[in-house]
């Protein structure tokens, strides 16, 4: 195996730590001559919850960001080319990895260190607020991928989202217990607004297209890794956006008409068990 192939394998390994709907990791990679292809694996999409493949592509974007970050950590200078071709919707990106590269730099290393230990939190956070500058930092991270991060700090709006998340729990019986808040309280009237709710954020895009979904995934992983580098962990409540009527309500009333793609709470870390990952062997194929 060439040095490049070895590094490409390491990057594929690292991408396994990216978040994906139900942890299904719906992506595939093809390792070529100083090149890695990235595609969605529709066979691992969620037919009922995600008929358009929106969440699938968000997960793929998070994996793509992780892959490129790891290549930079390994001293490469990857060039990511997104492939927004409506006729080939599952081919997502080509990454060229030219000879040369260099020192990854402190910032890359700091973010890379978060890849493996990052995981979704499953409960109420510690009551302390997140660091004061965090929302602005995360807004900037998301903005680099053309995605808007909105911190929902107005109690009225936050409570409305909590109520809708609770409603989605009742309306989506096929995935009982998926929402990490379900058994922990967020989404229940008596606990909305408690300090352990954390900072509620929405990622939104001006359009609702496969390119926007992929971009959201790139932004999501940027946000999650940066948040963790600043000591904050995330809980997902994106299931509420799987119900078109609720998503439309959130779009119109809480996102100024932009399309809501991901709903998260961010709070201070609680140590917790890390879930298992699919092995890298299952993710690399000749014919993908
Ligand atoms: C697009 C997307 C939507 C998600 N929606 C939810 C959700 O609604 N509720 C939830 O508990 N987790 C959700 N997750 C988190 C995944 O369940 C989680 O990433 C996966 O189980 C792997 O765990 P980890 O992130 O801790 O590595 C979502 C992840 C992605 C990428």
UniProtKB/TrEMBL annotation:
Lineage: Bacteria, Bacillati, Actinomycetota, Actinomycetes, Streptosporangiales
SUPFAM superfamilies: FMN-dependent nitroreductase-like (SSF55469)
Protein's UniProt name: Nitroreductase family protein
PANTHER family, per database record: NAD(P)H NITROREDUCTASE RV3131-RELATED, NADPH NITROREDUCTASE
Coiled-coil spans in chain: none
Organism: Thermomonospora umbrina
An example molecular function term from Gene Ontology annotations: oxidoreductase activity
Organism domain of life: Bacteria
Cited Gene3D superfamilies: NADH Oxidase
């Amino acid at each position: 195996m060439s040095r490049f192939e070895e590094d490409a394998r390491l990057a594929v390994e690292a991408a396994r730590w990216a978040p994906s709907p139900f942890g299904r990791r719906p992506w595939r990679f093809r390792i070529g001559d100083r090149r890695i292809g990235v595609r969605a694996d529709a066979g691992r999409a969620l037919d009922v919850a995600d008929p358009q493949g929106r969440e699938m592509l968000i997960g793929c974007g998070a994996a793509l960001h992780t892959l490129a970050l790891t290549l930079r950590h390994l001293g490469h200078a990857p060039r990511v080319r997104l492939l927004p071709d409506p006729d080939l919707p599952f081919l997502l990106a080509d990454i060229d990895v030219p000879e040369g590269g260099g020192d990854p730099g402190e910032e890359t290393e700091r973010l890379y260190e978060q890849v493996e230990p990052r995981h979704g939190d499953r409960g109420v956070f510690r009551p302390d607020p997140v660091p004061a500058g965090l929302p602005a930092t995360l807004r900037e991270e998301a903005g680099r991928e053309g995605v808007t991060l909105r911190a929902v700090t107005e109690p009225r709006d936050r409570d409305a989202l909590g109520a809708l998340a609770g409603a989605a729990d009742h309306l989506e019986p096929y995935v009982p217990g998926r929402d990490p808040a379900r058994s922990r309280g967020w989404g229940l009237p008596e606990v909305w607004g408690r300090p352990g709710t954390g900072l509620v954020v929405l990622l939104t895009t001006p359009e609702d297209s496969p390119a926007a979904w992929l971009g959201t995934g790139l932004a999501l992983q940027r946000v999650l890794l940066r948040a963790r580098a600043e000591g904050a962990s995330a809980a997902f409540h994106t299931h509420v956006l799987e119900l078109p009527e609720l998503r439309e309500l959130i779009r119109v009333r809480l996102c100024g008409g932009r399309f809501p793609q991901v709903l998260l709470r961010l709070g201070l870390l609680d140590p917790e068990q890390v879930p298992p990952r699919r092995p890298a062997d299952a993710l690399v194929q000749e014919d993908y």
